[in-house]
Design goal:
Helix content: 25-40%
Radius of gyration: 20 Å
Length: about 400
């Protein structure tokens, strides 16, 4: 989601050999899913439980879409007064589009309500999400005369630096907040704010959606759990360890999860290199899964991918530990690529990982055997278009 760039992620970060990092950050490694295959995920995780009376939408979300421009292949940080050339570049929708893309690539029917500028940036982002990822934009709108928010991300030395610019979108014409009527959906994903409620969250919950929420850093320093007005509408709350411990006044992520489970049915706390833990307050079930060791190139959007993985497993009615494992795996796969929505994995990437997974992990991730078709093709990826988009 829009505020997730700075979130703590569920992976073990292994330093890269400098020459390896340079080789992998070259012009041909900023990749995105081929649009010819992205609309047909290899796996429908909800297939076994779908019924004719179910909502047509699996997950609904809303937020700000940015145009992300990612420069890679920089050996060092840019130096004031000089010009730096990057060996690679990619463009993609960012912000809330990171979460929407992650959900869609895991096979969930995703609906996004967002404002798009009527500039070329907005047109590019709309087409990339609707045509490239199969995301339903029926609830979205194009605003004449409003320019798209933009983020430039520069990746170097295993980290990234970002510069963003944008203005708040003008409110829609007519009464009521935007979106006025979220579609009936199995689930909704929200980012909770201090001291303010979002009417759409309450509406979605009343319509039967299971609400999954994360939260950004509390700049006020109060860390008042009672100020998260929409927490009572949520089925699951997924803060990182630092956020969770501050909100609960505890000194241990596991204690924080137990405390949060008294406020929300499912509490999930991500613990960086240690993995993640969760408590189901309704049943008393607890689970903890360690992180996966990977060569981490860019953590942008990994928090969104983690939430998308957990939502997928929850809607598919997997055991709690399997949901944590899958969410951590998808987040780990994402940090091995550059960019936010560019790096979100789909089932081909998951299948490729599972075929080559070390023996030490095959027991924990054995549930993937029943999900991944034996004839599934390896991940189909191609270099991202480094422009705002070519005309057909």
């Amino acid at each position: 989601m829009a505020g997730s760039f700075l979130r703590e992620h569920v992976l073990r970060k292994r330093p890269l050999n400098p020459s390896t990092a340079r080789a992998r950050s070259g012009e041909h490694t900023v990749t995105s899913r081929d649009t010819r295959t992205s609309l047909t995920p290899a796996v429908d995780p909800l297939g076994p439980i779908r019924a004719p009376e179910d909502p047509g939408c699996d997950v609904f979300l809303t937020g700000t879409v940015f145009l992300d421009i990612i420069f890679t292949g920089l050996d060092t940080a840019p130096v004031r007064g000089t010009e730096s050339w990057a060996r690679g570049m990619g463009s993609s929708p960012g912000g809330v589009a990171n979460m929407a893309t992650a959900l869609a690539r895991l096979g969930l029917r995703t609906s996004l309500a967002a404002a798009f500028g009527d500039d070329h940036y907005g047109e590019y982002c709309w087409d990339a999400l609707e045509q490239g990822e199969g995301i339903d934009l029926t609830m979205s709108r194009t605003i004449p005369g409003w320019h798209s928010p933009v983020t430039v991300s520069m990746a170097y030395e295993g980290e990234r630096t970002m510069v963003s610019h944008g203005h708040e979108a003008p409110p829609p014409a007519g009464p009521g907040p935007f979106p006025q009527c979220p579609p009936r959906a199995r689930a909704a994903v929200a980012s909770l704010g201090q001291g303010r409620g979002e009417e759409w969250i309450a509406t979605a919950a009343r319509q039967g959606a299971r609400v999954f929420a994360d939260v950004g850093w509390d700049e006020s320093g109060r860390w008042d759990l009672g100020a998260l007005a929409d927490l009572g509408h949520c089925e699951a709350f997924l803060p990182n360890a630092g956020e969770a411990m501050r909100y609960t006044r505890t000194d241990c992520p596991r204690a924080a999860a137990r405390a949060l489970a008294e406020k929300v049915p499912i509490a999930v706390v991500t613990m960086g290199a240690e993995g993640s833990c969760a408590v189901d307050g309704r049943t008393g079930e607890t689970a903890e899964v360690p992180g996966i060791t990977v060569d981490a190139l860019d953590p942008t959007g990994a928090g969104d991918v983690y939430v998308a993985g957990f939502v997928t497993g929850t809607l598919a009615e997997w055991p709690l530990a399997d949901r944590l494992a899958f969410a951590g795996l998808t987040a780990a796969l994402s940090v091995q690529e550059f960019g936010g929505s560019l790096s979100a994995p789909g089932w081909p990437e998951v299948a490729h990982w599972w075929r080559t997974a070390p023996d030490s992990l095959r027991g924990r991730y054995g549930f993937l055997d029943a999900l991944i078709p034996q004839a599934a093709e390896p991940a189909a990826r191609r270099r991202a278009v480094p422009t705002i988009g070519f005309r057909p």
